[in-house]
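Quick start: read one record
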Amino acid sequence: MTDHKNKSGFFIGVTCPGCGSRLEMEADFFVLTCESCGSVLRIKMPEIPPAYIIKNTKSRREARSFADRYLKKGSLPLTESGVEIKMIYQPYWKVDAVLLKVRNRVEERHVYYAQEYGAEQDVSYEKKLTDINLAAYSMTHSAGVEDDEIPHSIGMKATYLRMEPYSQDNIPDDFECLPVVRPWEQVIKNVEQGTARLNEINPAAFGKNKTKLFHPIASIIYFPYYIIESNSNQGLRRLIVDGVSGSVTSLVNNCQPREMNALDSSTQIEFGNLDVELHRCPNCGYDLPGKQSYVYICDNCHQLVMLETHPLMSEGINAVVGSEYQNDRLFPFWSMKLPDSDVGVVRMMFGGIYDSDRLILPAFRSANFESLFKLSKRMSSAAPKMDYISIDVFDRHYEPVTMSLSEALVMAEVIIYRAKVGKTSGENCEPEQFLPIEISLMYAPFHLESYFYVDSVLRAVTFEKNLAG
């Protein structure tokens, strides 16, 4: 049985196809090893949004106890013997994206000048400043029928609670799973409108503020609630209790009995199911290494295996040569060649790519998107000054590729737009589709110096050590 004591965050429960054992994997991980039979497994995501369930942790008895505690605190009569308790799973859309914020503000500054005889003169002036930031965005929105009694969002709970893939087997018999009826297109439109309204909360001191979402990813999360109805001196009273924390989310007095929504199946929205497959080399069938990466070299036949393919992807992998450090870590980067028509434009926006005709992006994940942007600028500038050699084996120095190529292509658009915004303060600036003419994977050596990694060839590119974990 997998030990969960040291785990934290969002988990997905899966079943091993080799022996049927129950396993758990973290949300950002897609490769794991079964502790029962030793099989190396890979999670295959569906093409349409997947669905998950957050299991209830409170029993019916506990839910009623929490309801009575809430009523007692408000000096209200407790639930009576004829109480009726219904249990539901309410669906929510989970939206994960990259958020770019541009805030134009004016800062008042003071300068003190020394005068004769020790007197000082205070001179104040205003300076225009533009703050630009890339950050992760995560939010949940109701996917079921409109209901004022059920919370419209479960907030940040979706980022740390344990989940299981949606299936009838994972739904308790006494729970009713409400249908998904709110389409994704409507939800993402509302999300984009909501983020745009953030500009009005803190108006721009000059120009225009911008708030823009990139690469929104959708999933469905079912969350448990108890609906407790009992009679009181004010008629029928209904409480909604959170099935995980036990908190009361709403209280309605003098209401009508709640009727469960019986919707036609045609109104329900389809969602995808996760699949678990053996993590093996497609050439020889040998188990691939059990580490998280989108790129592998088979230990048996030494074939390069990429979990994602692309028609522009070059064969083989290159590594920077010339390092004299023995304890280097070789970090992966996606190298994307720009079309001739874009080279001058991107070079001007980045302000220091020199003769580079490529955009270099980190091929490892990080929640600090602003630091990824800065590292991409530095590597794009440095790449033409480095020499490369082809490699056909990974040793312990090579770091895994944890940012997929599809994610990197989106990040390229974000990075170019971020650079463009930095030059214009957000004025008359819109994202454009990024269309490279060639893509390759390269590794560059870095060594640790205090709190930073420094590239081991030019000794010019640095990034914070916590950026790569």
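The chain has a mean pLDDT of 84.
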